[in-house]
UniProtKB/TrEMBL annotation:
Pfam families: FA_hydroxylase
Name the record gives this protein: Sterol desaturase family protein
Membrane topology qualifier: Multi-pass membrane protein
Domain of life assignment: Bacteria
Length: 287
């Protein structure tokens, strides 16, 4: 069950509450809302709902197949559902991490990081090409969780992450901040500051980041957005600009190694300069 669709009225209500909070209790250190940015985020969210109708069918087929292949079967008891949420959150961590470390997946996820604002509308700025969760959630089905449990647990994960896209909540108590993903932790994840890049991938729990050494606490003020921001509010360009950049880099690559790297290495990867070009590159860097 995709709970996020049913939660749309709640999303709209909470957005209105946050906008009013900025109106009547402004904070000069917070960026708040702008009409164009918010309209783009909402457009991306509506497009994502439409696109996920197709991706959801493919995911359902894959998870049904995996569930019927495995001899395992987790019952739909309260503890079975709790394990489903935990399992989905664990594999979501690795899905999210892969989206930052593999450029082809980053081309989909970059949409969510493209806003230079951080508010509840940013949570709705979602990709239109989200087929990757089909693969990363397949192990959950192979562990014996029914497709309905996988879908619902994944929806719970996404619903949880809505409220952490805000600057209006500073920090919570230490026990909560240590275990759960919070607005403070997720602000770091959306930062383009050097020390914040590729940190805090967790969905519901932040303990995965602590365990796998990708955690970074919030320190200096967060600069939201990309290391190279895109100057557009056009939803089509926001959705597909990185795929276009990949195509450009692949067409101009000098060999298959570079072509592979441009697609499957990290977003900032570039081939090492050859012996012939190294002196020129060194001189350019010095300049």
């Amino acid at each position: 069950m995709d709970l996020t669709t049913y939660a749309i009225p709640a999303f709209v209500l909470l957005l209105a509450v946050e906008i009013l909070a900025y109106r009547f209790a402004p904070d000069d250190e917070q960026r708040g809302y702008t009409a164009k940015d918010t309209a783009t985020s909402l457009s991306m969210g509506l497009g994502s709902i439409a696109a996920n109708l197709g991706w959801g069918v493919l995911a359902a087929l894959a998870w049904v197949g995996g569930y019927h292949l495995t001899p395992l079967d987790v019952p739909g008891t309260w503890w079975g559902w709790a394990l489903a949420v935990l399992a989905v959150d664990f594999f979501y961590y690795w899905e999210h991490r892969a989206m930052h470390e593999i450029r082809l997946l980053w081309a989909s996820h970059v949409v969510h990081h493209s806003s230079r604002h951080y508010n509840l509308s940013t949570a709705l700025r979602q990709s239109w090409t989200g087929a990757h969760h089909l693969v990363f959630m397949l192990p959950v089905a192979l562990l014996g969780f029914s497709p309905a449990m996988v879908f619902t647990a994944y929806s719970v994960n996404l619903l949880y992450q809505f409220w952490i896209h805000t600057e209006r909540i500073h920090t919570l108590g230490k026990p909560i901040e240590y275990v759960f993903n919070t607005p403070s932790h997720h602000r770091v994840h959306h930062g383009s500051n050097r020390q914040y890049l590729d940190r805090n991938y967790g969905g519901i729990l932040i303990v995965w980041d602590r365990l796998f050494r990708s955690f970074e606490p919030e320190g200096e003020r967060v600069d939201y957005g990309l290391t190279k921001n895109i100057a557009t509010y056009n939803p089509l360009r926001v959705a597909f600009h990185e795929y276009r950049a990949i195509g450009h880099d692949v067409r101009h690559a000098t060999g298959w190694r570079e072509r592979f790297g441009r697609v499957f290495r990290g977003p900032g990867w570039s081939p090492a300069p050859t012996t012939a070009t190294a002196p020129a590159a060194t001189a350019e860097a010095a300049a």
